[in-house]
Amino acid sequence: MKCASKVAVSLKLLSAALLVSVSAGLFAADEPANKQAAPAAAGPSAGKQAIVVRKAAFVLIANNFKPIGEVLQGKATYNQAEIVKRAERVAFLSLLLDGTFPEDSNLGAPETKSKPEIWAKKADFDKQVKEFQVNAAALAKIAATESSASDAFKSAAKAVAEGCKGCHDAYKAK
């Protein structure tokens, strides 16, 4: 249990650091170089902030799922401690997606690769995000009990991977 507690604290610190660094970067980027020559910037819109947060969350999710996917594909060996760590991170990071697709973040390219279908079919999109969160949590739970790349692990990991692919196919521009 101590290990799980440390992981939970580490994930909370990681998410807090991510949000602080993203926010600091956003506000620093909008600040004029010569404060006396230009009026103070109003800061990024709520829609743009949502885009930055969701992009950061997706990058972290992808980076943490990659070793799981490599085990699933037979490109890496199963290391339970590593898989548990990665699966718990993916489960936690999936929760950061809540609220990151507000209507005012429907800005299109080049701001985002999100298709307008997200907002046109919001109920379906929200359902897919929720399923991803549930599948990610199930993967973390299974990883904690499996000492090998068992059928249960493979099934749970595939559900997460297929959820990502399905959502990307329907709602992300190439």
Task: Describe the protein in words.
This protein has 174 residues and is mostly helical. It has a single domain (46-171), classed as Four Helix Bundle (Hemerythrin (Met), subunit A) (Up-down Bundle). 70% of the residues lie in helices and 0% in strands. The chain has 6 helices and no strands. α1 (2-30) packs across α2 and α2 (46-72) runs antiparallel to α3. The longest helix has 29 residues, at 2-30. The radius of gyration is 18 Å and the shape is elongated. The model is unreliable at 1-5, 7-11 and 16-35 (pLDDT under 50).
N-to-C CA distance = 42 Å
Q: Into how many domains do the coordinates divide? A: 1
Give the topology string: H per helix, E per strand.
HHHHHH
The helix/strand class is mainly alpha
Radius of gyration over all CA atoms, rounded: 18 Å
Bin the helical content: 55-70%
Arithmetic mean pLDDT:
85
- Please count the beta strands (DSSP E, at least 2 residues each): 0
The level-1 CATH class: Mainly Alpha
Beta fraction? under 5%
Uncertain stretches: 1-5, 7-11, 16-35
CATH architecture level-2 label? Up-down Bundle
For the largest beta-sheet, the strand count, sense and barrel status come to:
none
Inertia-based shape: elongated
The CATH homologous superfamily: Cytochrome c/b562
Task: Set out the fold topology.
Layout: H1 2-30, H2 46-72, H3 80-95, H4 117-120, H5 122-145, H6 151-171
Features:
174 residues; mainly alpha; Four Helix Bundle (Hemerythrin (Met), subunit A); 70% helix; 0% strand; disordered N terminus
In short:
The chain is mainly alpha-helical and 174 residues long. It contains six helices and no strands. It has helices at residues 2-30, 46-72, 80-95, 117-120, 122-145, 151-171.
